[in-house]
Every structure is written in C-alpha cells, then in structure tokens.
TrEMBL record:
EC annotation from Swiss-Prot or TrEMBL: 3.6.3.20
InterPro entries, sorted: AAA+_ATPase, ABC_transporter-like_ATP-bd, ABC_transporter-like_CS, ABC_transpr_MalK-like, ABC_transpr_MalK/UgpC-like, Mo/tungstate-bd_C_term_dom, NA-bd_OB-fold, OB_MalK-like
Native source organism of the sequence: Granulosicoccus antarcticus IMCC3135
GO cellular component, as recorded: ATP-binding cassette (ABC) transporter complex, substrate-binding subunit-containing
Protein name according to UniProt: sn-glycerol-3-phosphate import ATP-binding protein UgpC
Keyword Hydrolase set for record: yes
GO terms for MF: ABC-type transporter activity; ATP binding; ATP hydrolysis activity
Signal peptide: none
Limits of the ABC transporter domain: 4-234
Entry keywords, A to Z: ATP-binding, Hydrolase, Nucleotide-binding, Transport
Any Pfam family hit: ABC_tran
GO BP terms, alphabetized: carbohydrate transport
C-alpha cells in the first residue's frame, strides 16, 4: 500500500516552472530522501505535500485520500523545518504540548504522548528548560519531538540538520535513522547533503530542474547512475570523467585504451561514437595490483590531500584532471609517479551527447 502518491504534479510561478509533471509513489514505512542542489525543487515538492504550497496541476494522495486542496492540519503529517521554529517563551514541554492542547486533546493522552516522545528522543531531562538553554542538537530533537507527539503516519523533514556542526549532524543522523526503525512510519527527507541521503534513505530521488533524474536505492544510484548528472552529484570527491570514443568494444582517449566488458555496457548503441568514461576515485587501483587491470598507466601526482582515513591524490590522465582515493597511510607526495589501474567492470559509460548511461 502506498503512503504518499504524487501524480502529474506541476508548480509554476509566473513563467518559471518549478516542478514539471512529477510522479512519485512512496510505499508505507519507507524512508525517502529528496536530494539535489539548491533550486532543484526538492523543498518545493515537500511543501506541496505538506499543503504549504498549492500546485498548478496534478494530485497528491496521502494514505489513499486526495489531499491536493486540503489544509495542512487535515493531511495527517508532521513536519520538521530547517529552523527549529520553537516558541522561545515556552518550555520544552510547552512546545511539545502546544498543538495537542489547541486540539483539545485529553490531558492524560497528552502526557502519554509527550512521555513517549521524550523517551524516544532522550530529552526527558530537558522538559522544563526553555529553548535558549538548549544546544542546537537539543533544539532540533525538540522540533522532531513536536512532530512526533502528533502520532501521524507521514513525517516530512526539510533539511533539519543543515544548521548544525559536522559532529552534531552525524550524531542526529543516527538518531533519525533509529527513530525510523522504531516507528516504521513513512518519512520524506529533503537534503543537499549526499552523505545524509546515502546513510538514511531506503530510496533516493535525485532532482534537477523540477524533475526526478533517478529514483532508486543508495546502492543502485552509487553503482549504476542513469546519467552523468547523477554520477557527478553522488560521491565525494565526485566521479572522474574522461571524454573519448568507442571503437570495437574499446574506449579510447589518446594512448588510453580500456577494453569494455560486453556484459556491463551496451557498446552497440555507441559504436564508433563519442562517449564518456566515468570512474570513481575509490575504484582506481594503485601500485602492483594495477598491473593486473584491463588498463594501467603511470601518472604524476600534482597534489596530495590527507583526510585521516583516506588520502586524496590529484593527477592528470590524458589531459584530464583525475582524482584517486588511496589509503590514509599512503606515503605519497607531489611530483612522484605512481601506477594506476582501471577496471571497466567498476566504471560507468555515458553517451557524450545525451549524457545517458550506456
């Protein structure tokens, strides 16, 4: 059973098309992440689902009910915003109970829901404090708790961690994932952070220009991107791209010749035509192991970027900037030459004109 279904959704401001004929089905209990750069339409889509924006065309269904023109309070959703949006004059408990008291819910039921939310989010010691006495992470927990006490089936998150520092973001990612596993509610989460998307999502919808470029599991999107945009967006550092041609089952660029595995690529569609070979920095083999790869060569290191767990190496391959991820303990330095190898089975191939995966 689908929890949220979107059919032919359009949203237009004057002559600007923000969402274009968007279709999406989200099964009950799924954690879906809307991922994309600023201006791609991900927050706009979330606001349409929440009822904060009226679409130009199309329909939105929540648990089988058409809510396209329903008020936000009638949709059975809980929303967590990028800003904490807490009432500063109220205590944590007051913020959690405000909406329930306005709905004239019995006190006993309110107390029960607040107790449960506080236990799940580990904010019991904070209930009597005011927001000014809380850290950023604690405030965001309270904001999540305010949505949680409503006991709804669909939760909407609009970049809830973007205002936090890196460590707090990592900690709260774990809390949100644990929360989803406990509640098994449908969650739709907007972010521009691919790490959040990869770690949290059951499925990721990568958006660009008001359209969904690819919808799939994190593993599918990482390993088999449908087009160059998705391949470039997912991964840090991003995928290496080399422009060349395909001839007789081999990718060629200057002295570079990479045999293509016929079970991995539809080379017939790109026979003797321009193509782009994509290979992730972490999939490049270095040292003695490189000699056993379908293609190996020597490159000169231009820049070394140690990050602790990894070492990022920058070089040139056939006149193209090329990044290599090595072990954090790798002993390399600029102007040193290293041997690298590329395995076509771990690469992606794109048509240079359409940018679609071959």
């Amino acid at each position: 059973m689908s929890s949220v279904e979107i059919k032919g959704l359009d949203l237009q401001f004057a002559s600007i098309k923000v969402l274009q004929n968007l279709n999406l089905t989200i099964p009950k209990g799924e954690f879906l992440v809307l991922l994309g750069s600023s201006g791609c339409g991900k927050s706009t889509l979330l606001n349409c689902i929440a009822g904060l924006l009226e679409p130009t065309a199309g329909q939105i269904f929540i648990n089988g009910k058409n809510v396209t023109w329903s008020e936000p309070s009638e949709r059975g959703i809980g929303m967590v915003f990028q800003s904490y949006a807490l009432y500063p004059q109220m205590s944590v408990e007051g913020n959690l109970t405000f909406g329930l008291r306005n709905a004239r819910m019995p006190r006993q039921e309110i107390a029960k829901r607040v107790k449960r939310a506080a236990e799940v989010l580990q904010i019991e010691p904070l209930l009597k404090r005011k927001p000014a006495a809380l850290s950023g992470g604690q405030r965001q927990r309270v904001a999540i708790g305010r949505a949680l006490v409503r006991d709804v089936e669909v939760f909407l998150f609009d970049e809830p961690l973007s205002n936090l520092d890196a460590k707090l973001r990592a900690d709260l990612r774990v809390e949100i994932k644990r929360l989803h596993q406990q509640l098994e509610n449908t969650m739709i989460y907007v972010t521009h952070d691919q790490i959040e998307a990869m770690t949290l999502a059951d499925r990721i919808a990568i958006m660009k220009g008001g359209k969904i470029m690819q919808l799939g599991s994190p593993n599918e999107i990482y390993n088999r991107p449908l087009n160059r945009y998705v391949a470039d967006f997912i991964g840090s550092p991003s995928m290496n791209f080399i422009e060349g041609t395909i001839k007789e089952g081999t990718f060629k660029k200057g002295d570079m010749m990479v045999p293509l595995n016929k079970y991995e690529f539809s080379t017939e569609r790109a026979s003797q035509s321009a193509a782009t070979l994509g290979i992730r920095p972490e999939h490049i083999v270095t040292g003695d192991q490189a000699h056993g790869m379908p293609f190996s060569t020597s490159v000169e290191i231009e820049l070394v970027e140690p990050t602790g767990s990894d070492t990022l190496v920058y070089a040139q391959l056939e006149g193209t900037a090329f990044r290599i991820r090595m072990d954090g303990q790798a002993k390399v330095r600029p102007r040193e030459k290293i041997t690298i190898g590329i395995d076509s089975a771990r690469a992606s191939l794109f048509d240079s004109s359409t940018e679609l995966r071959l």
